[in-house]
Each structure stands twice: as C-alpha cells, then as structure tokens.
Amino acid sequence: MQRIEQLCDPGSFEPLWADLTPKDTLRFQDRIPYKERLINEQAKTGQNDAIQCGRAFIKGRGVVLGVMDNRFMMASMGCVVGEKITRAIELGTEIDRPVIVVSASGGARMQESALSLMQMSKTSAALARLDDAGGLFISVLTDPTTGGVTASFAMLGDVILAEREALIGFAGPRVIANTVRQDLPEGFQRAEFLREKGFVDRVIHRHDMRSEISRVIDYAGK
C-alpha cells in the first residue's frame, strides 16, 4: 500500500495478523449479501479486510503501525479491523513501541451491526491500557475519517495529526446541516477547522508526515 511505503523505511514493514478474515456472522443481506460483498472486495483489493498492521521503522524509530485502506468497503470498521487495531495496541504496550494508526474510514460496518459497534469500546479500552503503561499513540487522520472510527480510537491519540483538508467528523456535514437547519461555518469538519478548535494538534502535508511522526516520537522520548 502506498501509505505504508511513504511512511516506513524501505523494506522495514513486517505484516502481522494478515490471515484474519471477516465472517458473515449475522448472515446480513441488503442489495448484495455481505458474504458476496466480502468476496468482491477481497478480489478487488487483494486484502482480507480494510486494514494492514505490522511492525515497522520510521526514520529508524521502531513502531507498531496500522494503516486503513478505504478501497475495502470504505475502510468501515468491523470485527477484523477492531481486532487488528487492538492487537497492534497491545503489541505496542508489550514491547514499548509507539503505536501509529492511519485512519481513513466511513465508520462502523453496518453489515456487522452491534458486533461492529463493540469495536469502538474494545479499541478504546486497549488504548487506556497503553496510556496506563506510559505508551505513545499517534493518530493520523486522513480523508475521510468519520463515524464510529472518529468516535473511538481515532480521536484518542496522545498526538493527533491530520492531512490537509481531510474531512473529520461523526455524521457528515450535509446530515448535520439538515438536522440543525442552520448554515455551517466555512470549512466545517475539515482538518484546518478542527485544528483551530483544538481537536487536532497539527495539519501536515502527506509528504511531510514521515518526518513529523519521527519528530513526535523523539519529543516523547520513545
């Protein structure tokens, strides 16, 4: 994946838990049965689900990295995504490495219903344990980062970095505007707006993200 190549030292990314595969536990059907959707998405992307996790080095700094892939069902968070992020956080806690998750998601995966929503508390609890252990979590928000991902681990970073003009929020701006029946401020829910309001620490160009992450790790003494 291009983001992994941009962030990691060449050849340093070691994939973990790549064999985890989503299940159609609820036998969910809408226009296309979930089981069929999964087969189609796996064939299209070559991935079992919407995130890759592993050990890596960023400018020589050892990290545990997760990168969401919005080509796979808009990187919606189901059980596999939640499990891999939780395992990444737990590994970072165990080996005392910074944990970095690059988010790009449409939110919780509706085809997994409450099982998907459970991943919000699961990942958040793992981050609380990382924090208790004195670990470092860097959350990188890209376009878009929305729904249950925003309402859980993505906004719990010790440092939250965002790419320029990334859409970040829970519900989309059109939904909010139609609900409150008011005009929204210019740039509402964009990374720069959130930085002004204190929800994001820095807005960084994608090509500068690798250097910025390494600086944050050094500043945190990790």
Task: Describe it.
There is one protein chain. With 222 residues, the protein is of the alpha/beta class. The protein has a single domain, classed as 2-enoyl-CoA Hydratase, Chain A, domain 1. Helices cover 38% and strands 21% of the residues. It is built from eight helices and eight strands. Strands 1, 2, 3, 4, 5, 6, 7 and 8 form an eight-stranded mixed sheet that branches. Helix 5 (147-150) links the parallel strand 5 (137-146) and strand 6. Helix 3 runs parallel beside helix 4. The longest helix has 20 residues, at 113-132. The two termini are 26 Å apart. 43% of the residues are buried.
The unreliable regions are none
Could you report the average pLDDT, rounded to the nearest whole number? 95
CATH-derived topology: 2-enoyl-CoA Hydratase, Chain A, domain 1
Shape: globular
Task: Please name the fourth-level CATH homologous superfamily.
Answer: 2-enoyl-CoA Hydratase, Chain A, domain 1
User: Architecture, according to CATH?
Assistant: Alpha-Beta Complex
Q: How large is the count of helical segments?
A: 8
| Main CATH class | Alpha Beta
Integer tally of domains: 1
Q: Largest sheet, described in full? A: 8 strands, mixed
Distance, first to last CA: 26 Å
Number of strands: 8
Beta-strand portion reads 15-25%
- The SSE order reads HEHEEHEHEHEEHHEH
